[in-house]
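TASK: fixed-backbone design
INPUT:
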């Protein structure tokens, strides 16, 4: 594994750890505002999938000899653009952003930034990361299997649990209207 690959791989893990710290800080704030966690049963599967994702990349590179494709600069540029959207999502939700499902009853869902155009831009970012990040390393098995498993977990478990919890405690459906989950809707209101 070359130097830039190690730096990128470790940097991405560092980003995830920093996000967990931010999520914990935001959870404490939401708890003080009367918030509560919902859907905690499936969170361990999300964490497990992310751990396996990073392990899969490492396995493919170190033991299976995966190498960056010739188009890695393009993939890196796309990946960095996706990271920009990730930061936009986190900043748009502010203290409401979390890796877990936190609900603050009576607080309206945030519809700033990319949330003006779709319901779950952060999950769209994660799906794009699951494709782009391992592809940068030539770890195509991890890209395909990881993306598929992540999609299953999001579409059939995480998003339904999150939308149900938000709909029960906030004006989520009114705020989100006809927005799609992953693909932007640019229709004027």
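OUTPUT:
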């Amino acid at each position: 594994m070359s130097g830039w690959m190690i730096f990128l791989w470790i940097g991405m893990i560092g980003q995830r750890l920093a996000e967990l710290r931010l999520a914990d800080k935001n959870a404490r704030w939401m708890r003080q505002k009367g918030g509560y966690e919902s859907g905690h049963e499936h969170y361990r599967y999300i964490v497990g999938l992310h751990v396996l994702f990073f392990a899969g990349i490492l396995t493919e590179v170190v033991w299976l000899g995966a190498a960056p494709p010739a188009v890695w600069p393009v993939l890196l540029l796309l990946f960095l653009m996706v990271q920009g959207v990730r930061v936009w999502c986190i900043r748009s939700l502010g203290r409401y952003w979390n890796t877990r499902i936190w609900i603050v009853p009576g607080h309206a869902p945030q519809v700033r930034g990319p949330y003006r155009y779709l319901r779950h831009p952060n999950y769209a970012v994660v799906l794009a990361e699951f494709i782009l990040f391992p592809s940068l390393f030539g770890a195509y098995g991890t890209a395909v299997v990881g993306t598929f498993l992540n999609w299953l977990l999001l579409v059939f478990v995480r998003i339904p649990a999150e939308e149900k919890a938000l709909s029960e405690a906030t004006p989520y459906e009114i705020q989100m209207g006809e927005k799609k989950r992953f693909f932007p809707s640019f229709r004027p209101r």
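COMMENT: The longest strand covers residues 36-38.
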